[in-house]
Amino acid sequence: GVFEEKGVRAAALAARDLVGLHPGRIELHVFGTGEPSIAAEFAGAAGLYFHGNVNADEIRGFATRRRCCGLAMLRASPRYDLAGTNLTKLYEYLALGMPVIVSNVGEIGAFVEAGQVGLTVDKMLSLDEIRSAMSNMLLDDAAFDLCSERARALMLRDDMTWESEWRKVADTGIFAGVAT
Question: What are phi and psi of 154, to 5 degrees?
Fold first, then answer.
Protein backbone atom coordinates (compact mmCIF):
# COMPACT_ATOMS: atom_id res chain seq x y z
CA GLY A 1 0.00 0.00 0.00
CA VAL A 2 0.86 3.65 -0.33
CA PHE A 3 2.03 4.48 3.18
CA GLU A 4 4.88 6.54 4.55
CA GLU A 5 5.99 3.66 6.79
CA LYS A 6 6.36 1.54 3.65
CA GLY A 7 8.79 4.03 2.15
CA VAL A 8 6.54 5.44 -0.56
CA ARG A 9 7.04 9.10 0.34
CA ALA A 10 10.81 8.62 0.70
CA ALA A 11 10.95 6.83 -2.67
CA ALA A 12 8.96 9.64 -4.30
CA LEU A 13 11.24 12.31 -2.85
CA ALA A 14 14.34 10.46 -4.05
CA ALA A 15 12.88 9.71 -7.48
CA ARG A 16 11.75 13.32 -7.94
CA ASP A 17 15.36 14.46 -7.45
CA LEU A 18 16.68 11.83 -9.88
CA VAL A 19 14.10 12.53 -12.58
CA GLY A 20 15.53 16.04 -12.86
CA LEU A 21 19.07 14.66 -13.19
CA HIS A 22 18.17 11.85 -15.61
CA PRO A 23 15.05 12.92 -17.54
CA GLY A 24 13.43 10.07 -19.45
CA ARG A 25 15.64 7.48 -17.76
CA ILE A 26 14.04 7.21 -14.33
CA GLU A 27 10.36 7.10 -13.40
CA LEU A 28 8.56 6.04 -10.25
CA HIS A 29 5.28 4.19 -10.66
CA VAL A 30 3.32 3.50 -7.46
CA PHE A 31 0.49 0.98 -7.38
CA GLY A 32 -2.12 0.57 -4.66
CA THR A 33 -3.96 2.83 -2.27
CA GLY A 34 -3.28 4.08 1.22
CA GLU A 35 -2.49 7.60 2.36
CA PRO A 36 -4.04 9.95 -0.25
CA SER A 37 -1.84 12.81 0.97
CA ILE A 38 1.24 11.11 -0.51
CA ALA A 39 -0.19 10.93 -4.03
CA ALA A 40 -1.52 14.48 -3.65
CA GLU A 41 1.87 15.80 -2.56
CA PHE A 42 3.47 14.57 -5.78
CA ALA A 43 0.57 15.16 -8.18
CA GLY A 44 1.89 16.56 -11.43
CA ALA A 45 5.55 15.90 -10.58
CA ALA A 46 7.47 14.87 -13.67
CA GLY A 47 8.25 11.16 -13.78
CA LEU A 48 6.09 10.22 -10.76
CA TYR A 49 2.89 8.26 -11.36
CA PHE A 50 0.33 6.96 -8.87
CA HIS A 51 -1.87 4.31 -10.48
CA GLY A 52 -4.17 3.17 -7.66
CA ASN A 53 -5.25 -0.45 -7.38
CA VAL A 54 -4.47 -2.82 -10.22
CA ASN A 55 -4.75 -6.56 -10.63
CA ALA A 56 -2.00 -9.13 -11.11
CA ASP A 57 -2.38 -9.17 -14.91
CA GLU A 58 -1.98 -5.39 -15.08
CA ILE A 59 1.18 -5.49 -12.93
CA ARG A 60 2.61 -8.36 -14.97
CA GLY A 61 1.86 -6.51 -18.22
CA PHE A 62 3.39 -3.31 -16.88
CA ALA A 63 6.54 -5.13 -15.77
CA THR A 64 7.00 -6.89 -19.10
CA ARG A 65 6.78 -3.63 -21.06
CA ARG A 66 9.30 -1.74 -18.93
CA ARG A 67 12.62 -2.14 -17.21
CA CYS A 68 11.44 -2.20 -13.58
CA CYS A 69 13.10 -2.29 -10.21
CA GLY A 70 10.88 -3.23 -7.26
CA LEU A 71 10.96 -1.18 -4.07
CA ALA A 72 10.18 -2.80 -0.71
CA MET A 73 11.41 -0.24 1.78
CA LEU A 74 9.86 -0.60 5.20
CA ARG A 75 10.84 2.00 7.78
CA ALA A 76 12.24 0.65 11.03
CA SER A 77 9.55 0.10 13.64
CA PRO A 78 8.87 -2.55 16.27
CA ARG A 79 6.51 -4.21 13.78
CA TYR A 80 8.87 -4.27 10.80
CA ASP A 81 12.09 -4.94 12.73
CA LEU A 82 10.63 -8.39 13.43
CA ALA A 83 9.89 -9.03 9.77
CA GLY A 84 11.15 -12.25 8.32
CA THR A 85 11.64 -12.60 4.60
CA ASN A 86 7.99 -13.45 4.03
CA LEU A 87 7.16 -10.19 2.30
CA THR A 88 4.75 -10.99 -0.52
CA LYS A 89 5.58 -7.82 -2.47
CA LEU A 90 9.26 -8.78 -2.50
CA TYR A 91 8.52 -12.24 -3.87
CA GLU A 92 6.21 -10.80 -6.53
CA TYR A 93 8.94 -8.46 -7.75
CA LEU A 94 11.53 -11.24 -7.82
CA ALA A 95 9.17 -13.62 -9.64
CA LEU A 96 8.76 -10.95 -12.33
CA GLY A 97 12.54 -10.80 -12.66
CA MET A 98 12.81 -7.38 -11.08
CA PRO A 99 15.90 -6.43 -9.16
CA VAL A 100 14.88 -4.90 -5.85
CA ILE A 101 15.81 -2.13 -3.46
CA VAL A 102 14.84 -2.99 0.11
CA SER A 103 15.39 -1.53 3.54
CA ASN A 104 17.53 -3.36 6.04
CA VAL A 105 14.74 -4.35 8.41
CA GLY A 106 14.29 -7.77 9.90
CA GLU A 107 15.74 -10.47 7.66
CA ILE A 108 14.79 -8.78 4.38
CA GLY A 109 18.09 -7.01 3.68
CA ALA A 110 20.15 -10.11 4.44
CA PHE A 111 17.92 -12.19 2.15
CA VAL A 112 18.39 -9.76 -0.76
CA GLU A 113 22.14 -9.50 -0.17
CA ALA A 114 22.55 -13.29 0.06
CA GLY A 115 20.67 -13.78 -3.21
CA GLN A 116 22.47 -10.84 -4.83
CA VAL A 117 19.16 -9.74 -6.31
CA GLY A 118 19.29 -6.05 -5.44
CA LEU A 119 20.45 -3.35 -3.09
CA THR A 120 19.67 -2.42 0.49
CA VAL A 121 19.18 0.94 2.16
CA ASP A 122 19.24 2.04 5.77
CA LYS A 123 16.14 1.04 7.74
CA MET A 124 15.48 4.69 8.61
CA LEU A 125 15.07 5.31 4.85
CA SER A 126 17.85 7.84 4.32
CA LEU A 127 17.06 9.84 1.18
CA ASP A 128 20.74 9.91 0.24
CA GLU A 129 20.93 6.10 0.41
CA ILE A 130 17.69 5.69 -1.54
CA ARG A 131 18.86 8.11 -4.25
CA SER A 132 22.19 6.32 -4.47
CA ALA A 133 20.60 2.87 -4.66
CA MET A 134 18.11 4.01 -7.32
CA SER A 135 20.89 5.61 -9.37
CA ASN A 136 23.17 2.59 -9.07
CA MET A 137 20.45 0.12 -9.97
CA LEU A 138 18.83 2.00 -12.81
CA LEU A 139 21.89 3.52 -14.43
CA ASP A 140 24.16 0.44 -14.33
CA ASP A 141 22.63 -1.81 -16.98
CA ALA A 142 25.00 -4.72 -16.36
CA ALA A 143 24.26 -4.80 -12.60
CA PHE A 144 20.54 -4.45 -13.26
CA ASP A 145 20.55 -7.35 -15.73
CA LEU A 146 22.58 -9.56 -13.40
CA CYS A 147 20.24 -8.91 -10.46
CA SER A 148 17.26 -9.56 -12.72
CA GLU A 149 18.72 -12.88 -13.87
CA ARG A 150 19.44 -13.89 -10.27
CA ALA A 151 15.92 -12.90 -9.19
CA ARG A 152 14.34 -15.23 -11.75
CA ALA A 153 16.71 -18.06 -10.83
CA LEU A 154 16.06 -17.59 -7.11
CA MET A 155 12.32 -17.80 -7.53
CA LEU A 156 12.61 -21.06 -9.48
CA ARG A 157 14.38 -22.86 -6.63
CA ASP A 158 12.49 -25.65 -4.85
CA ASP A 159 12.86 -23.93 -1.48
CA MET A 160 11.04 -20.82 -2.74
CA THR A 161 7.54 -22.28 -2.54
CA TRP A 162 4.75 -21.98 -0.01
CA GLU A 163 4.99 -25.74 0.48
CA SER A 164 8.62 -25.38 1.50
CA GLU A 165 7.73 -22.62 3.94
CA TRP A 166 4.94 -24.77 5.39
CA ARG A 167 7.39 -27.66 5.89
CA LYS A 168 9.68 -25.33 7.87
CA VAL A 169 6.81 -24.43 10.20
CA ALA A 170 5.66 -28.03 10.53
CA ASP A 171 9.23 -29.21 11.20
CA THR A 172 9.38 -27.00 14.32
CA GLY A 173 7.03 -29.47 15.99
CA ILE A 174 4.46 -26.78 16.75
CA PHE A 175 1.69 -29.02 15.41
CA ALA A 176 2.56 -32.06 17.54
CA GLY A 177 -0.66 -33.89 18.25
CA VAL A 178 -2.65 -31.66 15.91
CA ALA A 179 -3.85 -32.89 12.53
CA THR A 180 -2.26 -30.80 9.77
Answer: -60, -45
